[in-house]
Amino acid sequence: MIVILTALDVEQNAVLEHLIDLEMYEHDKGTLFDVGTIAEHPGHRVAVGITGAGTTTAAALTERARAEFSPAAMMFVGVAGGLRQKTAVGDVVVATKVYSYQGGRSEDDRFLVRPRSWELSHRVDQLAHRLCRRHQWRGFLPDHARATPPDVHFGAIAVGDVLLDSTRSDLAQRLHTSYNDAIAVEMEGSGFAHAAALGDQVPAVVIRGISDHADGHKADADHAGGQARAVANAAAFAVALAVSLEPESRSAPEDPVTSDPAPTTITNTLVARGNAHVENQIGTQFNGGLR
């Protein structure tokens, strides 16, 4: 089982497009998940949930999903603002490092950053890179996206409870100065990564599609279809990765070995010699001995 979480309905719907035999699963606290099988990949089961925006609910529902499903891996899938011109709208970002950028120390004349970060597990990183060889994952893209397929980027992302849509704001300048390796910015990944790290180190990955460049033109980019392309592409890569992460189900051994075999009842008939008379003896055989 793989768990995929999203923040928005449009992101969740993009993931559900790849699943069949969907059933609703209700957690006892009211959280609803859609559980299904990846189309054309029987045995690859996925539970999909929606957290809403922000790191706090992302963390809470990540832990809830982990405890409920005990997944082989978890993913957070959705959109992000690009912080580099090399990341075109529609491109996919696999987060190799997730920064929580809001921690710090505020002094009279300056803000000293005290970030936390979580890195992608080596195994997931290796599998994600392998998917990019010969563009294996593109088979999961919608038909209309295959004519101009997106690129996949591996890099750090910056996360906080702020929707960034400026290149000149104090936050934009802080990200440029103190998180200069970040190539995208979003609002849930750190809560997700933190909760996953606390949950017995379950493999977790944040996958984002670039919907805009956080430059004051987000509304225009969304209106031009940037968000729709971004969620479809991110979902396609996530589902391809889920297929590579989740092994095919294996049947049980045909002849299982029992640790405590059932006792066998045996009957011995003894023949007496001379004038002696002996009745039949009936006993139970345990590990080669008669009792």
Radius of gyration: 28 Å
- Spatial strand arrangement across the major sheet: 5-11-10-6-12
- Note poorly predicted spans: 250-259, 261-267, 269-274, 284-291
Mean pLDDT: 87
Describe this structure in words.
It is a single chain. The protein is of the alpha/beta class and 291 residues long. It has one domain: Nucleoside phosphorylase domain (Rossmann fold), CATH 3.40.50. It is built from seven helices and 15 strands. Helix 2 runs parallel beside helix 5 (189-198). Mean pLDDT is 87; it is low at 250-259, 261-267, 269-274 and 284-291.
Name its key features.
single chain, 291 residues, alpha/beta, Rossmann fold, five-stranded mixed barrel, three-stranded antiparallel beta sheet, 7 helices, 27% helix, globular, disordered C terminus
Summarize the structure.
The protein has helices at 9-16, 55-69, 122-132, 170-178, 189-198, 218-223, 226-245, and strands at residues 2-6, 19-26, 32-38, 45-50, 73-82, 92-100, 104-106, 111-113, 116-119, 152-159, 182-186, 204-212, 264-268, 281-286, 289-290. With 291 residues, it is of the alpha/beta class.
List the helices and strands and how they pair.
Elements: E1 2-6, H1 9-16, E2 19-26, E3 32-38, E4 45-50, H2 55-69, E5 73-82, E6 92-100, E7 104-106, E8 111-113, E9 116-119, H3 122-132, E10 152-159, H4 170-178, E11 182-186, H5 189-198, E12 204-212, H6 218-223, H7 226-245, E13 264-268, E14 281-286, E15 289-290
Helix pairs in contact: 1-7, 2-5, 3-7
